């Protein structure tokens, strides 16, 4: 699905976006600072708060109609600590209208699969660009499917900025994973210096374009916006900062892929999400869930984040 490159200014030149279907059906009201933000977005990323929204009835979530919460365990855990975490997760009461996924380290996937409630699906944290073979240290989508994984996390900032994976390589991974029936949590996000330079949208749109150029369909993709400066730092984007990027991402999808994809694709937030801030973040209309790091290693707190969907219902 090849796309022409587009500038940041062209993405927002039409003003606040409107979306059909399950998404926004009315113009998004914006404050004066936000209007200035959209006009000058290439030179400045606005940090202003959103204007208040009128009360409205509960609306269906994007895609499957469900909030989406993923837990990325990263390179953490042991057999004993994971056994304790699984006990906590299995005993948790989780809202029914949430898709819940956890991503253990590769070597513990089988342990998790054999012990975790079927209520929670399993993801891997990475996969190779094609079939298995002479690729030391890699794991293929086919192997992930064989062991019971339903999802894979791709494009995470630690893969981009520590391991050195580039946009096109990540897009290739995503396309192959989708072709083998895995769902993809497709991560995007800017570094602190990129935000401070006013390049948040440029960076996110470039990363989105690499996915769009490679994937045959968006049906099984969840976009995870994770500002790199908020991952594992204890800093978190304000609900308004996260919302404005999510709106821009959805607008980009509408203009560059299709209005249907923009309407259906779930866009989740990641970056120091925890039990204390999830409820306020969940109230934002275009935040369709979370990708959780450290807090996903604590069963009760992860359950609190999953159940923050209740705030989404109240906000709606």
TrEMBL record:
<protein>
    <submittedName>
        <fullName>Isomerase</fullName>
    </submittedName>
</protein>
<dbReference type="InterPro" id="IPR013785">
    <property type="entry name" value="Aldolase_TIM"/>
</dbReference>
<dbReference type="GO" id="GO:0005829">
    <property type="term" value="C:cytosol"/>
</dbReference>
<comment type="pathway">
    <text>Carbohydrate biosynthesis.</text>
</comment>
<dbReference type="GO" id="GO:0006096">
    <property type="term" value="P:glycolytic process"/>
</dbReference>
<dbReference type="InterPro" id="IPR035990">
    <property type="entry name" value="TIM_sf"/>
</dbReference>
<dbReference type="InterPro" id="IPR020861">
    <property type="entry name" value="Triosephosphate_isomerase_AS"/>
</dbReference>
<feature type="region of interest" description="Disordered">
    <location>
        <begin position="1"/>
        <end position="20"/>
    </location>
</feature>
<dbReference type="InterPro" id="IPR022896">
    <property type="entry name" value="TrioseP_Isoase_bac/euk"/>
</dbReference>
<dbReference type="GO" id="GO:0006094">
    <property type="term" value="P:gluconeogenesis"/>
</dbReference>
<dbReference type="GO" id="GO:0004807">
    <property type="term" value="F:triose-phosphate isomerase activity"/>
</dbReference>
<keyword id="KW-0413">Isomerase</keyword>
<dbReference type="InterPro" id="IPR000652">
    <property type="entry name" value="Triosephosphate_isomerase"/>
</dbReference>
<dbReference type="Pfam" id="PF00121">
    <property type="entry name" value="TIM"/>
</dbReference>
<dbReference type="GO" id="GO:0019563">
    <property type="term" value="P:glycerol catabolic process"/>
</dbReference>
<feature type="compositionally biased region" description="Polar residues">
    <location>
        <begin position="1"/>
        <end position="13"/>
    </location>
</feature>
<dbReference type="GO" id="GO:0046166">
    <property type="term" value="P:glyceraldehyde-3-phosphate biosynthetic process"/>
</dbReference>
<comment type="subunit">
    <text>Homodimer.</text>
</comment>
<comment type="similarity">
    <text>Belongs to the triosephosphate isomerase family.</text>
</comment>
């Amino acid at each position: 699905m090849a796309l022409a490159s587009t500038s940041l200014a062209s993405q927002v030149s039409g003003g606040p976006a409107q979306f059909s279907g399950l998404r926004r059906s009315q113009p998004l009201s914006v404050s004066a600072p936000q209007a200035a933000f959209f006009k000058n977005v290439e030179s400045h990323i606005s940090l202003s708060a959103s204007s208040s929204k009128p009360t409205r009835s509960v609306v269906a979530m994007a895609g499957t109609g469900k909030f989406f919460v993923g837990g990325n365990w990263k390179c953490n855990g042991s057999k004993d600590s994971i056994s304790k975490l699984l006990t906590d997760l299995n005993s948790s009461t989780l809202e029914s209208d949430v898709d819940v996924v956890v991503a253990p380290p590769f070597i513990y996937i089988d342990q998790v699969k054999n012990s975790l409630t079927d209520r929670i699906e399993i993801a891997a944290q990475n996969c190779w660009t094609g079939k298995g073979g002479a690729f030391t240290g890699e794991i293929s989508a086919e192997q992930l499917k064989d062991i019971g994984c339903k999802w894979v996390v791709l494009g995470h900032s630690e893969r981009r900025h520590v391991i050195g994976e580039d946009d096109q390589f990540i897009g290739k991974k995503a396309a192959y994973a989708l072709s083998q029936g895995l769902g993809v949590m497709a991560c995007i996000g800017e570094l602190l210096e990129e935000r401070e330079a006013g390049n948040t949208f440029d960076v996110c749109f470039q990363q989105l374009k690499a996915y769009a150029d490679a994937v045959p369909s968006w049906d099984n993709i969840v976009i995870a916006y994770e500002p790199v400066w908020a991952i594992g730092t204890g800093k978190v984007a304000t609900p308004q900062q996260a919302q404005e990027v999510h709106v821009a991402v959805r607008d980009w999808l509408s203009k560059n892929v299709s209005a249907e994809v923009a309407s259906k694709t779930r866009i989740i937030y990641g970056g120091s999400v925890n039990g204390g801030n999830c409820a306020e973040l969940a109230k934002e209309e275009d935040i369709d869930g979370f990708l959780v790091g450290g807090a996903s290693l604590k069963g009760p707190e992860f359950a609190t984040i999953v159940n923050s969907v209740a705030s989404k219902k109240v906000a709606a």
